[in-house]
Design goal:
Layout lengths: L1 H10 L8 H13 L2 H17 L3 H12 L9 H13 L4 H14 L10 H11 L3 H13 L6 H18 L2 H15 L18 H11 L13
Helix pairs in contact: 3-4, 3-5, 4-5, 5-6, 6-7, 7-8, 7-9, 8-9, 9-10, 10-11
């Protein structure tokens, strides 16, 4: 009975239902929650909705936190800014850039976040074809106190490849492609959490990386002075 009561008490902010009745229930429970927990309840509910494809609803919840609707939200604000930025990354790179910069400006220590904001900003700038600036942020992330999980480093190498291709740096393309393939081959890092840090990609990406890793060096012709 104790376990069942615990599950029922916590499920309300993790469900993916956002029907009018579910919204009423969420707001009612939220109003009764302790003030210092409300930010996290709203943030986690947003994640559940986002994962269920209800992106606009998720953003509305995260904006409540960012816009200061709740008092005493603790560390929920930097997380909410990062969630918002991530939600725009694939569809509105300019908006994502703005939010990643806001996060880095307001919370430079990146506490209560994934600590991937610099990497994410670099990837976003690649999408915007601002390659020199992208490389600065990618380098900053790699040299900083970053989480060294294979899936994170795989993303970094993928972004570096795009920058190197734009700059004609074929050696870096080959090295990063080889490194990315090695990361993709690594198995689970944690015995009891076998998906944490593991690279998830598709066959077309792997084929492309194999092609890039095996490309012959570009021959540089030397002409004597006349």
């Amino acid at each position: 009975m104790t376990l069942r009561r615990t599950i029922l008490a916590t499920d309300w902010f993790r469900t993916t239902d956002w029907s009018p009745a579910a919204q009423d229930d969420f707001e009612r429970r939220l109003s009764r929650a302790r003030s210092y927990n409300r930010g996290d309840y709203v943030r986690i509910k947003g994640l559940a909705l986002h994962d269920a494809g209800k992106v606009d609803d998720a953003r509305e919840l995260w904006l409540r936190i960012v816009n200061g609707v709740y008092e005493d939200i603790g560390l929920a604000r930097p997380s909410a800014i990062e969630h918002l930025a991530d939600s725009y990354k694939e569809t509105d790179a300019a908006k994502a850039e703005q939010l990643y910069r806001q996060l880095l400006d307001e919370h430079p220590d990146l506490g209560a976040t994934s600590r991937l904001a610099e990497l994410s900003l670099g990837e976003t700038l690649v999408r915007l074809k601002r390659f020199d600036e992208a490389l600065e942020w990618l380098t900053r992330w790699k040299q900083g106190d970053q989480p060294g999980w294979p899936n994170c480093l795989f993303r970094w190498h993928q972004a570096v490849i795009q920058v190197a291709q734009a700059q004609g740096d074929h050696d870096t393309v080959r090295r990063s492609a080889s490194a990315a393939l090695e990361l993709a081959d690594r198995g689970p890092m944690l015995a009891h959490h076998r998906t944490v840090g593991v690279v998830r990609t598709d066959e077309s990406t792997l084929r492309r990386l194999h092609e890039l890793a095996s490309e012959p060096p570009v021959r540089k012709w030397w002409r004597p002075r006349e």
